[in-house]
Automatic annotation (TrEMBL):
GO BP, one annotated term: tryptophanyl-tRNA aminoacylation
Region Disordered, annotated ranges: 1-32, 448-470
Record's protein name: Tryptophan--tRNA ligase
Span(s) of short sequence motif 'HIGH' region: 113-121
Length: 551
């Protein structure tokens, strides 16, 4: 979940804009429309040079949700959200609801100080600041332990860049008096939490997620668990919806963090229909059997498990005889039907009844007893779980969390995340910290920033005549990305105007790049002035700029 500025391609759905004789297409990436764009392989590597050529595959393969669907829930969404630069999310709804209802929430992101901060980092800076301005507790961290373990940077090199990241973050609007800034190596609470999280993870799991093997250094693996602690750190003073703005290459971290948040809980809460365990597709079959109880039960108020088993088998056999399928989805697999009916037959005359189940995951004996005592109404107590009748899932979740907190647990909520598209490098392809011409550093002299934009690859046609006739290939233009991601700011009308003039053939590359270059120079000049002002603020903060770790 840390951002070192590497990444691949990406634009907002408003498109790119460029065109004209000096804007010949020299290998700009495939168009990325609002639906995700060109089809290609997806590779997610938190420390590599990940590119995502098809954002749609992230929805299909990794379960990332389309951000557009949650957009109406967000009060005054950021322009990166409106333009589709932020394209996906995991479980952002609790954050949006907290924001809308003026309830506590948090936002956190980390930065690996491997070089100077640049315009790619500004995306994350802006997202973090926006959430802070909307009332969220904001956390910005320097991932120095990760930089040392995963990138092999010396502590001197890390110290050299730490101040620069913090200055840019503050200069762009982060309020350090109302937020939290820290270094991993100096935060004992994070390190202690990482140790506890490490008791719920193992080498095989980390190996499967990150391709670690027998040659992987232990400190490298430790840096992963430290990042998990970073992600959950805002909830140490109490559970709250928390969002982590990241690029899609960081999604493996988010999936693991959400899993670990659950594993640390005292209780798991599920729905059930009988005393035996069931999950996923099994539970769906039981739910359907319960709903159809009028069709088979002698007493529909108390359908028996054995009766439900007979009904399931009969329905499946009838459908098969007619060449059809009883349930029309993956739950009809013969092995699954057999597994569920075996469980139902073994339960015999036990009533099939909906209930909420509290599973004992990590609860102390006192906490488990307190939970039993706190459940009102009918309940059944088993060795490893408690079944409560007449209680809904939401109330059960709240009760489980309250008992956990009263008895010293964390009560973590699964952290949420939002995903932004990668910026294309100015030279086409990937923007890379190691290729100065591909990116603009926030420390670049304004004239140097101007020159880089003027030299950038565009999405224009081979000649000005073709540009006027056919229009520019705006959706392939790194220069328009600068407008959409940065130079237009909150002015959607301006961004749209540039785009439409490009694709309509009115805007040629020369004038477009000149305008962008001038705006970039102005931005850098203003930003660097604000960085100077931020130095005084940074000096007054309780954050170590020079590590005392041995060199």
């Amino acid at each position: 979940m840390t951002d070192d500025g590497t990444g691949g391609r990406g634009i907002g759905p408003a498109g790119c804009g460029d065109g004209g004789a000096e804007g010949a297409d020299t290998g700009a990436p495939a168009a990325l429309r609002a639906d995700g764009g060109a089809v290609d392989d997806v590779a997610l590597d938190p420390w590599g040079s990940s590119t995502v050529d098809d954002y749609r595959k992230l929805f299909e393969e990794f379960g990332i949700e389309v951000f557009e669907e949650v957009l109406p829930r967000i009060p005054s969404p950021h322009y990166l959200m409106r333009r589709g630069v932020i394209f996906g999310h995991r479980d952002y709804r609790p954050v949006a609801e907290a924001m809308a209802n003026d309830e506590p929430f948090a936002a956190l992101s980390g930065f690996m100080p491997t070089g100077d901060p640049h315009i790619g980092h500004k995306l994350v800076f802006d997202e973090l600041i926006w959430h802070q301005e909307r009332g969220g507790e904001a956390y910005g961290l320097i991932a120095d332990m990760e930089a040392h373990a995963a990138r092999g940077l010396s502590w001197d090199e890390i110290d050299e860049h730490t101040e620069s990241y913090l200055l840019s973050l503050i200069a762009l609007g982060f309020d350090p008096e109302d937020g939290t800034l820290y270094r991993q190596s100096a935060n004992r609470e994070v390190q202690d939490l990482a140790f506890e999280l490490g008791t719920k993870a193992n080498f095989s799991e980390l190996g499967a997620i990150y391709d670690f093997d027998g040659e992987t250094e232990v400190s490298y693996m430790q840096s992963v668990v430290t990042q998990m602690a970073d992600i959950l750190y805002p909830q140490l003073d109490g559970p709250k919806p928390t969002v982590i703005p990241v690029g899609p290459d960081q999604d493996p971290h988010m999936r693991l963090a959400r899993d670990l948040a659950g594993r640390m809980r005292y209780f798991g809460v599920t729905e059930a229909y009988a005393s035996f365990e069931s999950e996923g597709a099994e539970s769906e079959l039981l739910r359907r059997a319960y709903k159809k109880r009028e069709a088979y039960a002698d007493d529909p108020e108390r359908p028996r498990c054995a009766e439900a088993a007979q009904w399931l088998l009969a329905e499946q056999k009838t459908a098969e005889a007619m060449g059809g399928d009883a349930f029309h989805d993956e739950t009809t697999l013969e092995s699954l039907i057999q597994k569920v009916t075996n469980k139902l037959e073994n339960a015999g005359k036990e009533p099939l009844r909906p209930r909420v189940r509290f599973l004992d995951r990590n609860a102390t004996d006192d906490a488990f007893e307190a939970l039993i005592e706190a459940i009102d109404g009918e309940k059944r107590v088993y060795e490893g779980h408690v079944d409560a009748f007449g209680m809904d899932r939401e109330a059960a979740e709240e009760l489980a969390r309250d008992i956990e907190l009263e008895h010293g647990g964390y009560g973590f909520l699964p952290p949420s995340s939002v995903y932004h598209r990668f910026m294309t490098g100015l030279t086409g392809g990937k923007m890379s910290s190691s290729v100065p011409a591909s990116h603009i550093s926030l420390l670049d002299d304004p004239e140097e920033g101007y020159d880089k934009v003027k030299s950038a690859t565009t999405g224009g046609r081979e000649t000005a005549e073709k540009q006027r006739e056919l229009g520019g290939k705006a959706d392939e233009c790194p220069v328009y990305e600068l407008y959409a991601y940065l130079l237009s700011g909150d002015d959607d009308e301006f961004a749209t105007e540039v785009y439409e003039e490009c694709v309509g053939g009115e805007r040629l590359c020369g004038g477009c790049k000149e305008q962008a270059a001038e705006l970039m120079g102005e931005f850098l000049e203003e930003h660097q002035e604000k960085r100077e002002e931020a130095k005084e603020l940074l000096e007054d903060l309780d954050i170590e700029l020079d590590s005392d770790r041995k060199r």
